[in-house]
Structures are given as structure tokens and as C-alpha cells.
Hints:
Largest sheet: 7 strands, mixed
Number of helices: 17
Number of domains: 2
Strand content: 5-15%
Structural class: alpha/beta
Distance between the termini: 60 Å
CATH topology of the largest domain: Aspartate Aminotransferase, domain 2
Order of helices and strands: HHHHEEHHEHEHEHEHEHEHEHHHEEHEEH
Shape: globular
CATH architecture of the largest domain: 3-Layer(aba) Sandwich
Helix content: 40-55%
Amino acid sequence: xxxxxxxxxxxxxxxxxxxxxxxxxxxxxxxxxxxxxxxxxxxxxxxxxxxxxxxxxxxxxxxxxxxxxxxxxxxxxxxxxxxxxxxxxxxxxxxxxxxxxxxxxxxxxxxxxxxxxxxxxxxxxxxxxxxxxxxxxxxxxxxxxxxxxxxxxxxxxxxxxxxxxxxxxxxxxxxxxxxxxxxxxxxxxxxxxxxxxxxxxxxxxxxxxxxxxxxxxxxxxxxxxxxxxxxxxxxxxxxxxxxxxxxxxxxxxxxxxxxxxxxxxxxxxxxxxxxxxxxxxxxxxxxxxxxxxxxxxxxxxxxxxxxxxxxxxxxxxxxxxxxxxxxxxxxxxxxxxxxxxxxxxxxxxxxxxxxxxxxxxxxxxxxxxxxxxxxxxxxxxxxxxxxxxxxxxxxxxxxxxxxxxxxxxxxxxxxxxxxxxxxxxxxxxxxxxxxxxxx
Length: 439
């Protein structure tokens, strides 16, 4: 329900009426802001129209132009050898570069075997954190419940609890034997909900544990959620795929958990958040994507959701980096990076295997338990008989070893940033720190 005193724009009303008719589940999941937001028929649309028809002169675009192209400083342009000024200096649209969006959509469809499904065109975001905020803008009201496992990236709390005033409902990520994903905890937590609207956030490979469910676990997760949808719950499934593609073992979930929920039931809407950041090792580029999958698979519905997302970008960060998008577009178009990417993947896999070779050693059994890990950048230890932050501080002060303490007992190790030759030394120093603190 829209807040009293808010006069809804006619464009927003028209968009919402289409959603009500063609995808009532998406409409019911929208936040108040998500219902109110719209892409105005203003500067963006008028500039696009002028670009097509203004053959004398175009006085719509708020950039400086010179000789038919963007005005620029040679002292800036000298840093770019492979892009033209038009690929660097002008604004990109709030939607992102059209060619880049299309190529990323094709990538998602191919890698997740979604050829028989229709998904939206991805919207370019300022990496995944911005994508998570856009999910908050579009779908989260004060007091909504968001179900996230207890092993989670701390920024979720800042985004959803602090910024959007939602309730994060945690459940145990791992079963009691630390063998795999805790399906019973997920089922019990969801069954305890007395609300019609449910928001689920999955992050695989997981930060902080580096765990991706096995294929059969992912199928079981799907069945648990599907059972609730069949009972009438309206469900939003958000896939945070920040570490997508970094799976180091056979038998793990292929592609994204998003693929399990794309078009699976009228009461389920899926959102995929991904990007170049970790997939192509360009953390500072900040180029991500937000993609919708709805049971109706209706073109008009997707266009409306794309416009609402782009409008939320327009009224916050305006648009995303044009040169970063241009570089990413050329990478995808040319495809010459794949051999290099595989080499880096194998290097990370070798580090993960080295960690496994060491951390399960008999000599460490009295010091820690190891949370299962099989993918991504991280692994986690559950320390025994000592506070994790004290171990972190001791290891840092005495041995120059940096780790991240989580809660009272967990310690996150980013093996992605440690040379393979230093991994054994790292865990030996942690073991010494635990024993010295105990004594």
C-alpha cells in the first residue's frame, strides 16, 4: 500500500497497472518506493529522441562537445590507448551500454542453460553492492524479513538492517556435522514465517566460508522454496553471485542458484546480481549487473522493471562508468581473455587445494574445526577454546599475519590474497597464536 500523502505519478501508475495485470507477484513484492519509482519522460527520453532526429544541431545533452565528439583534455586521453574518446568521456545511460547488456544476457543464458527461459536484459550497476541496494530500493520496506544464512558478508547488515530497516532472519548455514548446507534449518526458518512476503538471499560461493552447495543440495533448496510458493507465499529469491564461476570441485551447483528459480512458479521472482569484479579480476572497475526472472516471462513486465531499476540508478548515482563499461564490452566481444582467466582460476584452485592439504592435519584438530569450503576466495575456521579476535590481534602483532575475526569463534582467511608458498606458514602462525593465548 502506498503511504498516505504521496501523490503517485501517472507514469508510475501506468507501469504498476501493467505489472498488476501481467505479473501480480512482482507487483506484490515491490516496496513502496518500488511502486512509486518511474523513468520520467524528461531529459533521458528527449535526448534519445533528439539523437535520432536532430540533424541540424542537438542541444539536449549536458556534455561539452567539439568537432562532433566529446570535448576532452589530451592529458586525460593519453592514458587510453585502445578506446576512442566517444567510448570514454560521455555519460552512459542509467541502463548501461546496450551492447554490453545484450552480451551479458547471452552469457547468463548460455552458462545457466536457460535457453528455454526468458530473462530480462541486465541493467548495469555500480558493482554488486549497488545491485544489493537496488534490490533494497525496489523490494524492501521497513520491517520486511530477509532470510540469510548465519555465515554472511557483514555489509548485508549495513544495507538491509541499517539503511532499509528490514529484519535479517538468520538460520544455520551448515549442518551440525559440518558436512554441508543445513537444509533442515532453512526449511524450519521459512516455515516459522507468518508473513505472506518472503525475501531470500543466497550467496554462493559464500563469503566468508567459500562454500557452494552440491547440485543435489541446490535442488533441495529449490524444493523447499517451491513448496512454500505452492502454499501461496510470495517469494523473492536474490542470488548474490559475486564469486560466480570460482568452483574448485566436481559435483557443485552448476551456474547460479538463480537458474533454479527462473520461471519455476508464479509466486517466485528471482534476481541475479553479478559482474566483472571478481570474474575478470577488475575489482576497481565497479561494473555489475542486475537481472530479473519472472514466471510470466513477459516482455512488458521486464521492460517496466528495467525502467524502474534504471530510474533508481538515475536518482542516486545517475549512471555507471562509461570507460569501464567500454573496456568490459570489448573484453566480452573479443573473447581473448579466456585463456588468461583460466590460468588465474587454476592458480586460485591450487591455493585452495594447498589450504585443504594443511588445515585438516591431525596436529590442528585440537585447535580448530574447518567449515567446508570448495570455491571462491575464502575459507573459515571455528576456533576452539579461544576468542577469534584475540587470535587475530595476537597473530597480527606477533607474526605479521592478517585475518578477519567474525563473532566469537570464527576466523576468515582469504587464501586468494596469499602466495601458495606462504600458506603453510600462515596456518602455523595461527596455530602458534592459539596455543600461546591458551597458555
